[in-house]
């Protein structure tokens, strides 16, 4: 009882933190119809600076770290990223009115990681003075990439199975469509083939999806490449002066602006969710918390096994709870073109992300404090 | 010296830009012009995943001047076949007259 | 299968974007494409109130493909009637041929 | 004599402040034909940050304030906002070659408030170490909205009166224009009705302008909604860490960039003024000072009645002297479409704002120091 | 009342914008519309010197509605003569019908 | 031996500085195909802030300086700017497959100054605690403008000479092309003159290039006008508060972002160089160092003659080694339109600038430390 009331008070207190209150503020002003716009170029540079800073922190930390400590958490990250996709495959995809590819893509997005959600968690950990491994941010790619790769591979295996026959048929048509069209008579209406082939069918010849291009595309995305750049500079250069005078002090303020944008974005996406099956709403409320608990559990194993800090456990839980907002969507769009982005982006942006930031972060923080303190 | 030409216009999602310009190049067109665009269509196969709250457009409009109608149709056909099942997009053609003996 | 269509182009001030796209939707057009534009006109009824020193355009160019001329004229008429007394703007039409049996 | 020379020396010293010198610098480089451009996205984010900061200051202050102190200044703000419109209605509008609606719109713009001018005043007050109520910035909407609403209502009442007959005629024509146009013959030139109706005539049916939509539109504008967001966060959240580490320290620097832009903008707008009656020039030099003096007087009443600080009096005078630059113009454009924006925006941007910042701020500051010290 | 018109379209490098709009004004056209564009051409006489890594277009597309073909050709000719030896660019014309007795 | 190994260790250490490591990082991630983009508006505002800051530093310094000290370095700057163009005229232009105008334009660009390279040098000087005259940044225009003017004048003299005959012929044609084109028949293909005149030929009537417009255009460019604005404000206003609270503390961090962009840009331009003669590669590796050594030598003369500091000598060498990236290209494009920008921009951006920043800066810094220490 006392525990619960403490927990709730802590919870409210954390909602008052700059990070979460700007998120809520964004939702509120969007709901009020505010015309406020944060230009896209500003959002881009903020994301760049936040992830470069996280990377720099990680890179400078790794220099003096015992990297064997990172092995177990990194392995768990990979496992969680893959697991989340299969959870979606065998829960969300089974729901009525939910298309299987849409569900797999949604799983991929929820398995992937949001840099801004992670930044919010790191900030709150610092505010609460809970220590965490400085390399914790570097777990990001270990969960992000496996989730996206798994989703794309699973979706294409599913599509290949389902479409083997149709694909054979369509490829015959495709060849036909390449024969020269009779031209010259401008007003005559030529007869166009109306059938088209599934994009993934190009792979259908060898019945295999190539994994490396997906990994490469993820690493080249703006979020991950900013972070890896930061790690590399932190490792091999001496960025301390700009880190201390620029990237670090501006971190929280820039994050508050980004949170505002994410709140506004969440609100404006809610209407899109109406067009898709209501199970997406259920999934995007439950999934972040479920994924977070799984990761929290695995993190506790690492805590007892290799001394992974409680702060690190929270980071692991939050990146599991988060869903990708920057590099995930385009990667999935290209890798599973037949999946409906309204479904997966809507679910993630409108509900998944606010739940991850506004509920999962304070929840796992509180849990860590209760267990750890 | 003016030269009758065919102008193909494709309006579709920005994410396809590179793939479509590759198709255009491969088809043998001499060039293309791209413009940022916003829009709403009838099919709305897929929404773009672009942020709603920012001030940018998530479509592109690509214009290709081709020497004959056949080439324009070939490009449009290829683009529609590869993408328009899964992506928003429309394509149409109109006439144009290229000036100044531009090698196009 | 190509389909003869009419293309209506409206160039006017950015502030009118929402109001005009509502007119377009209400008139029953199947879609529209919007592009940021700058420009100078003969009437210059009103200057736009946009900053001069920045690098942005203060006009928009809206293109609407309509199935017949009548619908295009209806939209253009409505827009001109409501706005062109007090706002800069021009509208014109040209022919187009929509490809691939797009439901427009 | 001594007083005047002191005053003048103070004046020059204030022109040397970063805020005012960047404004003048902007005018000078624009006059020299500089190609320097500050991107629009940067201006937008600066305005957002300045107004959020002012809002945060206000919100955090209100938490510990006796809000009854705010009642009188807020009431005066409303009164001044309304009064300024009527002043324009009965002075500027009576001048030869000045169209009445244009004059009313100009009055509305000069009655409304410029967030950046206010930011400049607050910065100079701090530099001069003159204390003011932290909630003083929150007077903004109390003057801004009444001015815009009054202008739109007065203009539409005027237009309704004037156009009742024409409107009746035009609405008959309008109905006619909706009958289907004969199509099919592409080359025939159909006969289009060339008459159009006044936009405001849509209201002419019930002879009333609806006030709430105007208020709503003002509140939803980017400037006011950023500020109100700041107030709300200051009140209900704990934004101290980002306030002290981000919004507050960046305030002056960002303001200096914005002042530069406003200086450049002022210069580049001057040519537009040539197209409108020269009375606009007279009005936009005199009005900011006149409005400022009225507000200063009312502020002094509050000073003696309820202990409103001298710094607060300066803020009140400056927001009266200022004319809106961000949210005012589009609101007026939509509310009084037949008014010529070249007239009101030109008058405000090219002359009104430089006068308010470059003359009114140092003037009222000096006055307050003289009276208060 | 609609009015037959000629629409001239010039796609060229952004640096020429001011010089070309001066030519258009001087030639007596009543206005023009400018749009930011990207593109690739056959001649690529000169690359634009714009940054590759940023997200902006380095071309512009200028549209001029003229009352007759002659004026359009005059402008296009002048532009090509002054610039198209040393700058990328293409120009073409098509037909248009201006609506609502716009004084253009 | 010991000297060399010390020098090399210093060199590597300087490559680890934030400035140079972000440059290298940019090249690496571009080579890896990263999709990271820094929006153009951000680059513009960074350039503005860096050059304003350099200007402010200079302006505030000049207030308390003995300006006669600046005379000799300024004269040397002018001389170097002019000399560099003639070096290109008599070396690069003589190489096989190199067009003379292209070579002259390349010389102009390498003679002109890059604000960001200069900013990098100033930052490294500060990190190494090597003192330099605060007005050193103000040498920029003294080298930049003469180089651009010389290049344009030399190129046009060359073109005038070469084309006197062709020009006469073309101008006859040009007059012919102005006769009214027969219109009316829409489908008939009129006969267009296909010959065109050299843009510079407009000057060929009086056989003289006007110098003042080029100077004016340089001064009005965004980089130089930001810097001169800073100088003026530093001289005549009291910008200390924004300087210390905004422009100065953000300087290094913003520079690191700009260096990243320049690295990415350099990599992405390399392919363009393949299209032009390979002598450009040789030139753009050798020239920055050669120009730097000449300037270093002249700087040493000033060092012994008038006490120009060793830090100042480094600044002089680096601005000589640098090649213009912002205002130079458009000025040259307009002034020598027949020169191929792929050649000069490619040479400068892809090789010249990385060499100037990554090699010339640490080299001349090390040299100054060795000589001076
Ligand atoms: N009738 C139309 N007129 C102009 N543009 C259209 C029209 N229909 C579709 N578009 C454009 O094509 C894009 C894709 O259309 P759709 O595939 O129908 O969603 C839209 O976002 C519009 O930019
Ligand atoms: N002759 C023209 N050719 C192309 N665009 C025009 C023309 N006249 C006007 N426009 C466009 O229409 C807008 C409004 O024109 P106006 O109402 O005449 O001021 C201008 O800002 C231009 O963008
Ligand atoms: N065939 C084409 N279709 C459409 N746009 C073109 C075409 N050729 C050239 N352009 C445009 O014209 C610009 C200059 O072309 P060019 O002078 O051939 O390099 C290109 O950057 C394109 O934007
Ligand atoms: Na996740
Ligand atoms: Na006011
Ligand atoms: Na140089």
From TrEMBL, chains A, D, F:
The chain crosses the membrane at residues 20-38, 45-62, 74-92, 104-125, 137-159, 279-298, 343-365. It holds the Pfam family Sbt_1. Signal peptide: none annotated. Keywords: Membrane, Transmembrane, Transmembrane helix. InterPro entries: Sbt_1 (IPR010293). PANTHER family: SLR1512 PROTEIN. This is Sodium-dependent bicarbonate transporter. It comes from Synechococcus elongatus (strain ATCC 33912 / PCC 7942 / FACHB-805). The lineage of its organism: Bacteria, Bacillati, Cyanobacteriota, Cyanophyceae, Synechococcales.
Automatic annotation (TrEMBL), chains B, C, E:
It comes from the Bacteria. GO terms for biological process: regulation of nitrogen utilization. Pfam families: P-II. InterPro entries: N-reg_PII, N-reg_PII-like_a/b, N-reg_PII/ATP_PRibTrfase_C. SUPFAM superfamilies: GlnB-like. One of its GO terms (molecular function) is enzyme regulator activity. Transmembrane segments: none annotated. This is Nitrogen regulatory protein P-II.
